[in-house]
Structure formats: structure tokens, C-alpha cells
Design brief:
Strand content: 25-35%
Number of strands: 7
Structural class: alpha+beta
Strand order of the largest sheet: 1-4-5-6-7
Distance between the termini: 14 Å
Radius of gyration: 14 Å
Number of helices: 3
Length: about 130
């Protein structure tokens, strides 16, 4: 599956979770539900994936974790916040660079309309 096909599935799955739960819960609840929905679709999805930092040719465990990683291609970061800030965009862009993935989805479930809480972040051209 391509990154764009995966992102469509993530969006549809996230919308289903948002319709069922609405805004206002903790990130961990939305992450668990989204993970469950994606697993039901037979997508290779991993949760809380360690992401090392490579510095001076040494792999360092700096405590970074990807919320969801799909098919080793798409990173999904789940939030439940008032609004995105520049730091959230920087965070997922850094994760994309460290993982060599091209597409990241930043999803904020704390919005009345689900579509208002979804941002696509691209590392390079897609």
C-alpha cells in the first residue's frame, strides 16, 4: 500500500473513533482505539515504537516513541489538545527525518470536527 492509501485508511479509522468517543478524552484512549481499528483492517501497525537518535554514528536511546507506525511507511502522532503548535509540527517532522519515513499524520482528537484536527506532514516529496 502507498503512503496516501494508508493515510486515507487512518483518516477513516480516526473519524470512526472520533464519532464513537467525541473529543475530551486522553491521548492514550484515542491511540488505543485507533490502533484497534487499524489492526481490524489487517494493516501492519506497531504502537509505541522506540525511535533512537543517531549521533556521531552512535545509536542512542533518547526515549522517543512513535505513537503508531504503519507498514514502516507512515507515522501517526495522536494528540488531545486545544490546538496544534509549531512544536507539534517540528516533533513529527523530526520523527520523519529520524525514521526515514515520508509521511506523518498529526491527529488531534480534541476537536468538534475531526477533519479540523488532522495535519499531513511530508518529509521530502510524496
Amino acid at each position: 500500500m502507498t503512503e496516501n492509501e494508508l493515510s486515507k485508511i487512518v483518516f477513516e479509522s480516526g473519524l470512526k473513533v472520533h464519532k464513537a468517543l467525541g473529543p475530551g478524552l486522553l491521548e492514550s484512549a484515542y491511540e488505543a482505539c485507533l490502533f484497534h481499528e487499524l489492526c481490524k483492517q489487517n494493516i501492519d501497525v506497531l504502537r509505541q515504537v522506540e525511535l533512537p537518535v543517531v549521533y556521531d554514528q552512535i545509536k542512542l536511546d533518547a526515549g522517543y516513541r512513535l505513537d503508531l507506525l504503519l507498514e514502516n511507511k507512515v507515522i501517526v502522532e495522536v494528540k488531545s489538545i486545544v490546538d496544534f503548535d509549531e512544536i507539534h509540527m517540528a516533533q513529527i517532522l523530526t520523527y520523519l527525518k529520524l525514521s526515514h519515513c515520508k509521511l506523518g499524520l498529526l491527529i488531534n482528537f480534541n476537536k468538534i470536527l475531526f477533519k479540523d484536527g488532522v495535519k499531513r506532514i511530508i518529509n521530502g516529496t510524496l
